[in-house]
Amino acid sequence: MSFLSRLREDLTTARTHDPAARGDLEIILNYSGLHAIWVHRLTHRLWQTEGLRTVARSLSQVTRWLTGVEIHPGATIGRRFFIDHGMGIVIGETTEIGDDVMLYHGVTLGGRSLEKVKRHPTLGHRVTVGAGAKILGPITIGEDSAVGANAVVVHDAPASSIVTGIPAEARPRTPEKKKPLVDPVTYIDPAMWI
């Protein structure tokens, strides 16, 4: 995918996920989560190049200082990834993130082990993670799942789950049912009050 095609895709993703986005120039200049993702693409390539890991790690730390988003250069991130209000995001070295994933501020994708193994989470495609959530260890959050704000997740969650609580528990994600604005059984017409 060309640089310009990827940039267009990033801008479209930002507009899709943030109703406050007013235009491409505003997104390019002001979206720190997007800035962190752009630099991560460079640092990830450097990380995979023999002898450039220190450069990659140093550049990722400068980006952390500038954006408030810490993404380890070893993390693998899919397409159309979006970070909304990026401050406080931490993404560990062995994290794997699928396509169309969205994180809100304060999310940690962290480890629970000091061993040099896969120690960070894997997020499937189309996962949304709420503000302040902590997903810890080499666990998998299945595709089309949502993790609630401030959840602490330490166990796998199957696809199409809602994951909430401390410690978090997964339950099936059901399609949203539209409720009528007014319950026709208990509604009393205000005109009848007169």
Structural commentary:
This protein has 194 residues and is an alpha/beta fold. The chain has a single domain (3-172), classed as 3 Solenoid (UDP N-Acetylglucosamine Acyltransferase, domain 1). It is built from 4 helices and 15 strands. The chain has helices at 3-17, 24-30, 32-47, 53-67, and strands at residues 69-71, 76-77, 82-83, 89-91, 96-97, 102-103, 108-110, 122-123, 128-129, 134-136, 140-141, 146-147, 152-153, 161-165, 168-172. The protein is globular. Keywords: Acyltransferase, Amino-acid biosynthesis, Cysteine biosynthesis, Transferase. One of its GO terms (molecular function) is serine O-acetyltransferase activity. Belongs to the transferase hexapeptide repeat family.
Which term fits the overall shape?
globular
Strand order of the largest sheet: 3-6-9-12-14-15
Strand content: 15-25%
Gyration radius over CA:
20 Å
Reading the helices and strands in chain order gives: HHHHEEEEEEEEEEEEEEE
Provide the fold topology.
Layout: H1 3-17, H2 24-30, H3 32-47, H4 53-67, E1 69-71, E2 76-77, E3 82-83, E4 89-91, E5 96-97, E6 102-103, E7 108-110, E8 122-123, E9 128-129, E10 134-136, E11 140-141, E12 146-147, E13 152-153, E14 161-165, E15 168-172
Parallel strand pairs: 1-4, 2-5, 3-6, 4-7, 5-8, 6-9, 7-10, 8-11, 9-12, 10-13, 12-14
Antiparallel strand pairs: 14-15
